[in-house]
Design brief:
- It is built from three helices and two strands.
- The protein is α+β, with helices and mostly antiparallel strands.
- Strand 1 and strand 2 form a beta hairpin.
- The protein has one domain.
- About 35% of the residues lie in helices and about 15% in strands.
């Protein structure tokens, strides 16, 4: 069931923006359940580090400022 929480978060009909899901049993296995995000997952500095590392490892760059809010400006 490794990817089930991710798939549920992306496709579940009751999911709202900002919801966080993980496996039910000991946070290691089972069906997805809504959870409180960890402090680490809410860290802006951690997000910046992860974004920078992802760009470096994929050799891709994405200017998020260019696209921020684009989905709501229709």
């Amino acid at each position: 069931m490794g990817t089930l929480p991710t798939l549920y978060a992306a496709t579940g009909s009751s999911v709202e923006g900002g919801d966080f899901f993980g496996p039910k049993h000991f946070k290691t296995f089972g069906y997805p359940v809504r959870e409180d995000p960890s402090e680490q997952s809410k860290s802006e500095s951690g997000a910046k580090k992860l974004w920078t590392l992802s760009e470096r490892l994929t050799h891709l760059s994405f200017d998020i400022k260019k696209y921020r809010g684009a989905a709501t400006n229709t």
